[in-house]
Design brief:
The protein has helices at about 15-20, 35-40, 55-60, 80-85, 100-115, 115-125, 150-160, 175-180, 190-195, 215-220, 235-245, 280-300, 320-335, 355-370, 380-385, 465-475, 505-515, and strands at about 1-5, 25-30, 45-50, 65-70, 90, 140-145, 165-170, 185, 195-200, 225-230, 250-255, 270-275, 340-350, 390-395, 405-415, 420-430, 435-440, 450-460, 480-485, 485, 490-500, 520-525. The chain is of the alpha/beta class. The strands form 4 sheets. Strands 8-7-6-9-10-11-12 form a 7-stranded parallel beta sheet, with helices on both faces.
Length: about 525
C-alpha cells in the first residue's frame, strides 16, 4: 500500500478514489501543519496539495516521497527543481480552476457596476441611498482580455450573452483562432485605449512584472475598469494611483503579495477587493481533487507523465541540445518579430537527436514564448499550440545531408498585409558548445551564440558596417568579434557582432532605421 498525504481541506473525492482503488492508504489532515504531518508520516509515497508550500525541508523529511500533485494549475509554491534532484515528480491539474476564475472576474465586474457591496451594507444598516448608487450596464460594452488561455477564453464565452465586443492580446494565439472565437486580435495599446473593461489573465513572474504601467494605464478611457484576477505584480500600482482619480478609473483586485490577513498595499485604490477567491468554488475544488487522484493512479499504472511539470532530461540526450533548442527558437522568434502572429512551427531533428524530437520541441516552444513552461510535457505543449490555431510539424529528417546531430527550426508568421514569411535557423553542439550553423540563407556560419551578440540583416551596400560601428562606439560599446557573410542570390548581408555589453533600450529601433534593416536582434546567452 502506498501512503498518500493530503495536508489540506481538499474535496474528499480524492481520498475516496484512492481508497476505492485499493492500492493506496490516505491520510487527509487539513489542520496539522505540513512539516509536522511530514514528520509523523516519513513513509509517505505521495503528497496532494492545494496552495500549501512544499519547500526542500518538507521533501527531505519524506525520504520515500516520489510524487507531489498540485490540485490546481500554479505550482510556484513547490520547490520543483529540488524535487527533481530528489527524483520526485511534480504534477498539476491545469484547467481545473479556469471556470471558477472566469466567473469571479465577471462577478466582480457586475458587482462593481451595480454597487452591490456598498448598497447591501447601507441598506442593511437601515439606509435607502438609491440615488447614490446609479450604476451602469455591462451589455454592449467593449471588453479587453489580456491573455487568452483557458480562463481568458471562458471569460469571453461567459460574457457572450451580454453582447459585448471582445478585444484580446495573446502573442501565442493566431488571428484566425481569435476570429473563430468571435474575438478581435489587438495590441495592448489598442485594448487599453478602446475598452470599457480590461481583465488580466496572464502568468506572473519577472516577464510580466509591471507590464501594466504608466503608458498603458494612461491610455485608458475615462471611467474604464481594470480587473486583476491573475497575479500580483502585473500592475504598477503607483502608476494606477497617479491617474485613477483623475480619469475615474475602477480597479477590482483579487491577488496579493501573500494570501494572508493584514494590510493590503492596494487598499487605497481598489474599489473591490476579494481574498483570492477565484478557484474557491466547490466545483473547482471537486474537479481539481478528482483529477489529482486520477493523475496519480495513471502515473503509477500507465506511466502517464503528461502532467509532470518538472520533467528531467532523458538518458542519452546531452543537456546542451535542450539549451540549443531554446536559444535557436528565441533567435528565430526575435528575427520574425515577437508580435507577429505565428502560423506554423516546423522542426527537423537530425542524427542522434531524432528520437528526442518531442523533448526538444518543448524547449523550442519555451524559447519562442518566454511565458511557456519549459517543464511542460510534449502532449500538453502540443495540445496548447493546436488550441491556439498554430500548426506544429516535426519533419522526417534526410540523414544523407550529413548534418550530424543538428536541428532546424522554421517559423512562418503573418506580416502586415496578411502576407506569410518563413524564418529559419539551424544549429548543433560541438564539444559541448552550442553552434548556430545557419540563419535563413546564410549557411555554414558555425558561431557560438554565447555572450552578447548583435545580428543585422540588410540589403548589401557600402557603409552599413561603418554606420553600425559608429552607433556602437557612440553608445560606449566595444566590438569583440565580427562576421559579415553575404548572399549573392538575395543581395543580402548578415552582420554578426559580438559585444562587450548589452545595447540600451531603443538602440535596436535606431540602428534598424539607420541601415533600413530587414531585422536587427541582440541576444544574451
Amino acid at each position: 500500500m502506498k501512503k498518500v498525504l493530503i495536508p489540506t481541506k481538499l474535496d474528499s473525492v480524492a481520498a475516496d478514489i484512492l481508497t476505492a482503488h485499493g492500492g493506496y492508504t490516505v491520510v487527509q489532515d487539513g489542520k496539522t501543519p505540513l512539516d509536522a504531518l511530514a514528520a509523523s508520516h516519513p513513509d509517505a509515497y505521495a503528497l496532494i496539495v492545494r496552495s500549501e508550500k512544499v519547500p526542500a525541508a518538507v521533501i527531505d523529511a519524506l525520504p520515500d516521497l516520489k510524487v507531489i500533485v498540485r490540485a490546481g494549475a500554479g505550482y510556484d509554491t513547490i520547490d520543483t527543481k529540488y524535487a527533481r534532484k530528489r527524483g520526485v515528480d511534480v504534477m498539476n491539474t491545469p484547467g481545473a480552476n479556469a471556470n471558477g476564475v472566469a466567473e469571479e472576474a465577471i462577478a466582480m465586474m457586475l458587482a462593481d457596476a451595480r454597487h452591490v457591496v456598498a448598497a447591501d451594507t447601507t441598506t442593511r444598516a437601515g439606509g435607502w441611498e438609491k440615488k447614490n448608487y446609479m450604476g451602469r450596464e455591462l451589455t454592449g460594452k467593449t471588453v479587453g482580455i489580456v491573455g487568452l488561455g483557458n480562463i481568458g477564453r471562458l471569460v469571453a464565452r461567459r460574457l457572450a450573452g451580454f453582447d459585448c465586443r471582445f478585444l484580446a492580446y495573446d502573442p501565442i494565439v493566431t488571428r484566425d483562432r481569435m476570429r473563430e472565437l468571435g474575438i478581435e486580435c489587438a495590441t495592448l495599446e489598442e485594448i487599453f485605449a478602446q475598452c470599457d473593461y480590461v481583465t488580466l489573465h496572464i502568468p506572473g513572474g519577472e516577464s510580466t512584472r509591471g507590464l501594466i504601467g504608466a503608458k498603458l494605464i494612461g491610455l485608458m478611457k475615462n471611467g474604464a475598469t481594470l480587473v486583476n484576477c491573475a497575479r500580483y505584480g502585473i500592475i504598477d500600482e503607483d502608476a494606477l494611483r497617479a491617474v485613477k482619480a483623475q480619469k475615474g478609473l475602477r480597479y477590482l483586485n483579487d491577488v496579493y503579495t501573500k494570501d494572508e490577513a493584514g494590510p493590503k498595499p492596494m487598499a487605497d485604490i481598489a474599489d473591490l477587493m476579494l481574498p483570492h477567491l477565484g478557484a474557491n468554488t466547490a466545483e473547482a475544488n471537486h474537479v481539481a481533487a478528482e483529477r489529482a487522484a486520477r493523475e496519480l493512479i495513471d502515473l503509477d499504472e500507465k506511466g502517464d507523465m503528461s502532467c509532470i511539470v518538472n520533467r528531467d532530461i532523458p538518458e542519452g540526450l546531452e543537456r546542451a541540445y535542450c539549451e540549443l533548442a531554446f536559444n535557436l527558437a528565441s533567435l528565430v522568434r526575435q528575427l520574425s518579430g515577437t508580435a507577429a502572429p505565428i502560423q506554423t512551427i516546423k522542426t527537423t531533428f537530425y542524427g542522434g537527436l531524432t528520437p528526442f524530437g518531442k523533448w526538444l520541441t518543448v524547449s523550442i516552444l519555451s524559447g519562442i514564448w518566454e511565458d511557456f513552461d519549459r517543464y511542460s510535457d510534449y502532449k500538453t505543449a502540443a495540445a496548447l499550440v493546436k488550441d491556439m490555431g498554430i500548426e506544429l510539424l516535426e519533419r522526417t529528417p534526410d540523414h544523407d545531408k550529413g548534418y550530424g546531430n543538428a536541428m532546424t527550426i522554421d517559423l512562418t508568421v503573418e506580416q502586415p498585409g496578411k502576407t506569410l514569411k518563413t524564418f529559419s535557423v539551424r544549429g548543433t553542439v560541438t564539444e559541448s558548445r552550442q553552434m548556430v550553423s545557419r540563419i535563413d540563407e546564410f549557411d555554414r556560419l558555425y558561431f557560438d551564440p554565447a555572450g552578447i551578440t548583435l545580428f543585422c540583416i540588410y540589403n548589401d551596400r557600402p557603409g552599413v558596417i561603418a554606420t553600425v560601428s559608429r552607433r556602437l562606439a557612440d553608445a560606449g560599446i566595444n566590438i569583440e568579434d565580427m562576421r559579415n557573410p553575404h548572399d549573392d542570390k538575395t543581395s543580402r548581408s548578415l552582420a554578426i557582432i559580438k559585444l562587450n555589453k548589452p545595447v540600451a533600450p531603443g538602440f535596436i529601433a535606431d540602428i534598424s532605421s539607420d541601415i533600413a534593416a530587414h531585422a536587427v536582434v541582440c541576444t544574451v546567452v
